[in-house]
Amino acid sequence: MNVSLDHYLMLSAFLFAIGLCGALSRKNAIIVLMGIEIMFNAGILNFVAFWHYKYFAVLTAQMFAIFAISIAAAESAIGLALVIAVYRHYQSIDVDEMRSLKG
Amino acid sequence: MEIAFWILSAITVIGAILAITMRNLVHCVLSLILFFLGIAGHYLLLRADFLFAVQVLIYIGAVAVLILFAIMLTRHVTGTEGPREVLGGKWWAGMGTAVIIAGLLWAIIRKDPLAAMLPAGMASTSVTEIGRALVADWLVPFEAMGVLLTAALIGAVVIALEEVIRKR
Amino acid sequence: MIQPLTDAKPYTLTPGSNGVIETQTLEVSIGPQHPSTHGVFRMDCVLDGESVVALKPVMGYLHRNHEQLAERMAWLGSMPYTDRLDYFNSMTNNWAYALAVEKLAGIKVPDRAEYIRVIMAELTRLLNHSCVIGFMLQDLGAWGTPLLYAFRERERILDLYEAVSGSRMMCNYMRFGGVRVNLTDENLATAKDIATRFPRFLDEFEKLLTNNEVLLARTQRVGVLPKELAINAGISGPMARASGVDYDLRKVDKYGVYGRLEFRVPLGDIGDVYDRYYIRVLEMRESIKILQQALRDIPQGPHIAPEVKLRNFKIPPGDGYGRIEGPKGELGFYLVSDEGGKQPYRYHVRPPSFINLTILEDMCVGHKVADVVVILGSVDIVLGEVDR
Amino acid sequence: MDQVYKVAPQLLKFLSYLLGWLPWIGKPVAGFLSNPPAWFLLAVAIAIPILFVVSVFPGIFAYTTLVERKALGRIQNRIGPNRVGRWGLLQPIADGVKLLTKEDIVPRSADKFVHFLAPVIAVIPSVLLFSVVPVGAGLVPVDLNIGILFAFAISTASVLALFMGGWASRNKFSLLGAMRAVAQVVSYEVPMVLAAVAVVMAAGSLSTLAIAKAQGGGILNVTHWFVFRPWGFVGFILFTIGAMAESARTPFDIPEAESEIIAGYHTEYSGFKFALFQLGEYLASIAMAGITVTMFLGGYNGPGSGPGILGGLISMFWFFAKLGGMIVLTIWIRGTWPRVRVDQLMSFAWKVLLPMSIVNIVAVGMWHYIAIRPIAWVVTTLWLVLWFITLSKLAASENIEKREYRYAS
Amino acid sequence: MEAIEKIKEIAAQAVPAAKIEIINSTPAAQQPALLVDREHIYAVGKFFKEDPRFQMDFCSCVTAVDYLPKADKSGCIEVVYHLYSVAQKQGPIVLKVRAPRELDQCRVPSLTPLWRACEFQEREAYDLYGVKFDGHPDLRRILMWDEFVDHPMRKDYVPPPDYEWEPTPHDDTLQRAVEEGGIMPPTAREELEKAKKK
Question: Cys bridge to C128: B16, C327, C388, D352, which one at CB 3.0-4.6 A?
C-alpha cells in the first residue's frame, strides 16, 4: 500500500481534532495556546501534502505554509505575552478564572 | 517511505496527545516538541526541505522556547504541581466538539475523489526557487509579513512590560 | 545602600511566604559547599531573576572556639594557634599577638627583631595581595591563570619562610620580645632577590589584567562601598582605603619601626571592586619600597629581647589591646591578665575579615548573582579567621 | 555521500582483493564484494559517512580535551596531564574509563525521565551538525541544498537539552543555568544567522559545499577566502563570537559558570551522563568551528587542494588544520579572559552584534553591485569602519573609566 | 589626646547623669578605660562619636569578658568597646559596661545604631557570652548553630561529655533512623540510647 494523499489528510484531521480537544477542554491558558499550535501545524501539513501530491510544479502551497508558520510564531509570541500579562493581573493562568476583561 | 510515514505519524500523534493530556506543564511542552519534530519529519518526507528547516528553526527553536519561558515566568518551576484540576469546567463539550469534527472530516476525506492521489513528483524544490518566488510574485505578502512580525514584536513587548511601563 | 541604622531589620528572607505566589523570587543558598565562597561560608540570597534582593551571610561552620583554647593555655602556647587564624598570613598574626602581649607586659623589642618583623610582614602582604587578586579573578571566571601567576611568586616567599622558620605556612616565628631565629645573610639575600624580582611580576600581572575590557566592565561600579559607611562599619585595610578612608595603622600607630620607613598610602575614590583590586596592586608596590628600605637598614644585634623568659612567663593583671595593619585589615588582640598571670584570662581576636563582612549585604543588593561572588572575593576573607 | 557512492565499487573491489587471500570464507565474500548488488552499494555509501562522523569527530573531541588541558596548563605555568602514557596521550581514555565507572547519581526529587533524556538529547544535534560540514573537496556527509539553514535549525535544538537538564535536576543552580543557557543561545542565534546571511549572499547558495567551492581559486587557493574581504572579515569575527557564545565557551560560559552557579545545568549530573553533556558541548563547538572554517576561512581550500585523490587528501589536511587552529584559538581565549556577566552578554548581543551584522549584510550588497574592485574595497571598508566606531561609541558603558589614584599626604 | 581624667571630666559634663569611673590597666599597657553605667552607655558613646574634640567614628573592637564571682566581690560580664578616630587619627577610648551574669538580667544597650561595626561583634558576644543587646537589629547566634543552648565562652560553661550530643538539627534524623530501623553505626545507636536514658 502506497502512502497517498488520503493518509496525510486523515493524519492532519486527527491532529486537528486533538488540538481542538486540548484547546477547548484544558484549564491552563498555555496548554490552550499549545492546542492552537497543534491545529495550526495540522493545517500547514495539509498545505504541504496537497502541494506534494497535486500542485508540485507551483510554489503557492509552500508559500502559504511559510506565511502560516510566520503568523503562528507571531501569534504565539502575542499569546504568551498576554498570558504573562493576565498572570500578573490574576496571579493565575486558569482560563476559567478569567471572566472579566477589565484591567 | 511507508515505514517512515507510519513511524512519523505515530510520533506526531503521540506527541500531540501527550501535549494536551500530561499533568506537568514542562512535560507538555516537551511532548509538543516531539510533535513538532514529527511534523518536520513529514515535511522532509514530502520533499519540502526548506519547510523542514523553517519548522525546526521556528517551532522548536523559537516557539517552544518561548512557551518554556512563559511557564518559567508564571509558575514556581522548581515545585511540583499539586493535585489540581487540569480540565476546564465544560470539558465534555470540548471533547464532544473535537470528536464530531474529527468524524466529519473523516467522512469528507473518504468521499473525496482527490484523496486517493499518489505523489506528483519526487524532486525537492531548491531554496533558490523559493527565494525568487518570495521576492517576485509574493513580494507584497512578504513585506506585509515583515510589518506584521514587527508589529507583533512590539506588541508582545508592550503587553508583557505593561506593569513596568505603568509604574514609570 | 546605606540603611538607617536605627531601624531594626528582622531576619526574614522570604518576602510573603504565606503560600500565595506574590513575588517570583528565588531563594538560593550560596554555600556552604560552593566553589567560590572561599571555604565553608554561606550566603542566603533572595534573587529576583538574576538580581540580588536580600543577602545574609551565615558563618560558623569552621568555628573551633579558638579563644577558649587560648584561655586554657600559657601565653606562648597559643602562638602556634594564631597561625591557623588567617592561614595565608601566619607571620602577621604572630606579630599582632606578640605585639599585644608585649604591650601588656611592657617588653622592649630589639631593633633587629623589629626589622625582621617588618620584612616578614611586608612579604606576607605581597603574597596575600597577589593571591587575593588571583582568587578574585578566578571568581570572575578567568580559570585561575592570574592565580597561578601569583602562586609562582608566592612559592619563592614561602621557600624563604621555610628557610627561616621551618614551615611554609604555619610559621610560628615570632616570640614575645623578638623572633624565634635570627635571619642569616643568605636569607637576607633571598629576600632582596624577591624584592627586586617582584616589580617585574607586578608589571606582567598588570599587563594581563588592569586594562582588560571584561575586567573593567565586570568590576567598575560594582559593589560600591561609600566612605562614611566604611568608617562606620569598622571596615579596615585595603577595603577601607579603596573607599577613600585614609587609615593605615602603619602610619597611624607607627608600631614597630614603621615610623622610620618611608612609604605612601594609596587611596581610592569610589570604593568599588576595581578600586579594591587596584589599591592592592599599589599597596604591593609600596610594600616593595618598604622591603627594600628595611633590607638596607637592618642593623646587627640580638633577635630577641634577652630578658624575656620562655618558661614561667607571667604578666601582671590588667588588660590591653594591640593591633597591627594586617594584609586584610586591622588585626587586633584584646588580652586580659588576672592575678595568676600565667595564662590569658580573656583572649579576644579582632579579625578583619569577620568585620569586613558586616556590609556584604549593602554592597551586593541590586547587583547580579555573578557579582556577589566577585564582591565577596574583593572583600578578601579567610574562613579560619572569620569563624575562629 | 555522492562521492562515496561513486568510489564505493573501487573500494569494495580493493577489499575483495584483500579478502581473497583469506581461506574458506574469503573466496565467497570476495566474490560478493567484487560484484555487489545496488542496495549493498547504497548501504555502504550511507554507512561510510556515518562511521566517519561518529568516529573521527568524537576522537577529535577526546584529544581536544587533552590539548585544552595541556595548553591551559602551559598558559598557567603548569605542565598539564603527563601521567597516562607519553605526554599524557592516553589521558582521554583514562578519563573515559573513569567517567564510565563512576556512580550515576540521580537526585531524589528529580524528574527522572527528563533527567535521563537530557544528556542523550544534548549529543544528537551536535552529531547531526557534522552532516553538513565539508571536510574535503566534494567530501561532505550529506550535501543538503539548505545546508547552513539546517545547521542553524539543528543547533537551536541543542538548547532544549540544556533546559531539560537544568529543569529536571530540581536544583536552583541548575535552573538558573538553564535559564541563562536558553536566553543566551536564543539571543546569539540571531546575529549568527545574520552574519551567515552575508556569506550566503556572496556565495549565492545555502549549501555548505557550494560555499566552500566559491572560495577556491585565486593565488594558491587562498586569496578568495571570504575572510580576506572586508565584509568577510567582519562576518568572521561576528560569527566566531556568536559561535563561542552558542557553544558556551569562555568568556561566554555563563550557563555553567563554575564560580557563580557551580556548574549550571549539569550540576546534578555525574558519571557517563556528565560525559555525554561534555561530549555534546564540545562536539557542538567543534562543529561550529568547522562551519566557521567552511564559511569564512575557505573551508577545505588551500595550496594544493582540489579534485582527485591527492587533491582530496590535501584538502582534508587543510580543513583539519584550520579546524585545529580554531580550536586552539578558543582554548587560548579561555585561558586568558575573565567571564562576562549575564546582562552584559545580552546587551552585547543586541546592541553590538546584531546591528553590526545587519550593517555587514548591506556591505555585501555594496560589494556585489560595485563592479570595480578597488572602489568596492574602499567603500565597504569605510562603511564598516564608520559603523563600527559609531556602534562602539553608542554601546560603550558610561561606567567604565580610566582612574587616577591619589596617595594620602 | 588628653589624659584619661580630662576625658572623664568632659564626658561627665556632657552626660551629667552618667556614672563614669576610671579603670586602670597595667602600667605597661597604659590603656585606662571608662566604666559607664548601663543606662548611659549609649549617650556617652554618642557623645564621643559626635563631639568635635573626639570624633570617635571608628569602633574597632567589641568584646565581652566574664568575671566569675569571688569571695570579696560579685561577678559580672563586662562589655568592652575600643573606639578610635579616623578623622583625627587618635584613640583609643575604651568604654566598659557591666551587666550581671544571670542570663535573664544580662542585658546592655546595643551600640550598633551608633557604629555599624558592632553588628557582628555584638552578635558574637551574645552568642558566646549570652549578653543581650537591647536595640540590636538582628540579634541571633552567629558562630554557634541556632539550636545550641548554652553560651560556651562563659567561665562556668561545662561542656557536655559528648560533643556530638549537643542538640543538633541532626537529632531528628537519627531518631527517625532508629525508629525506622534504618542504617546507622552501632556506636551511634548506643549513644542515642544513652542520651534517651538521660
Answer: C327
